[in-house]
Amino acid sequence: MKKTLIIAEAGVNHNGDLNLAKKMIEIAAKCGADFVKFQTFKAKDCVSINAKKAKYQLQTTNQNESQFEMIKKLELDLKAHQILIAHAKAHNISFLSTPFDLDSIELLHCLGLEIFKIPSGEITNLPYLKAIARLNKKIILSTGMSNLGEIEACLDALCKNGQKRNNITLMHCTTEYPAPFNEVNLKAMQTLKNAFNLNVGYSDHTKGISVALGAVALGACIIEKHFTLDKSMSGPDHKASLEPSELKLMCQSIKELDLALGDGIKRISKSEKKNINIARKSLVAKKDILKGEKFSEENLTTKRPGNGICAMQYDKFLNKIAKRSYKKDDLIRE
């Protein structure tokens, strides 16, 4: 059975509060996610003091605060990472984090992470790509804001610097919070699979869960979705995130969809076999038929149940001689 891996993206929705981050781990585990993911960065190494906020960040945070000041408050230090990794282990959920700078890559490597998530914004950052490639970990690569040429260049950079290509999963993504439905272009996920012959997934920034489920149906092997304890909280990503009840519904729905997708072989299922004779039709006397009379369109029809002569034999019986008499609605028993 296909199993879609679910990443519950805590991101920076912990608001810099370690206790809130621990609570998010517990929620992700209870909801049925396979991974809970945070973001690892040092503000001084990934955002200049002159960097402007995105439009959605201006709408969801203090407009008088710079992007650097906003990001700085959301840092998680080494001790926080150690606490969160241990907390995730205690709740039987795998810990992931996205590094946003070179020191953060090294930090996560030293902490023993086996999977590295490359965010969409780093797909054109060659020094960053080289540093991750040298580790040759499993990579989940988000492709928001990029075209096929940029993705190909990114893959080339990774593979030339030590990364095994078959350890990379490409994530289709639309980098907007929330992403407009008419810009999701979900079929592009299949384009990525065909173009690069790699496993693909979907990092979802739309409202609700419908697009994530659509991605599973189209073959995503990983679904990533932001979540929060409360959409009304202050912070850049809360409003474009799922609340716990929504995250739980998404996880349950994906698992049901995995079951429903099956193996693609068209066969009669075990549960439906018993319904064949109930739902299908047999050859039946349309009216009383005397022995020796010819079967015709006037006296032969098809009705349930299906445990007589298959209705597909109708034409073969026309003009045959009845070997016995039949009452109306009798199954033909020739």
Automatic annotation (TrEMBL):
- SUPFAM superfamilies xref list: AFP III-like domain, Aldolase
**Gene of this entry:** neuB
Task: Supply the InterPro entries for this chain.
Answer: AFP_Neu5c_C_sf (IPR036732), Aldolase_TIM (IPR013785), NeuB/NeuA (IPR020007), PseI-like (IPR051690), PseI/NeuA/B-like_N (IPR013132), SAF (IPR013974), SAF_AFP_Neu5Ac (IPR006190), SAF_PseI/NeuA/NeuB (IPR057736)
Name the source's superkingdom.
Answer: Bacteria
Residue stretches making up the AFP-like domain: 282-334
Could you identify this protein by its name?
A: N-acetylneuraminate synthase
UniProt lineage: Bacteria, Pseudomonadati, Campylobacterota, Epsilonproteobacteria, Campylobacterales
- What GO terms in the biological process aspect are recorded for it? carbohydrate biosynthetic process
Assigned keywords, A-Z: Transferase
What Pfam families does the entry give?
Answer: NeuB (PF03102), SAF (PF08666)
GO MF entries: N-acetylneuraminate synthase activity; N-acylneuraminate-9-phosphate synthase activity
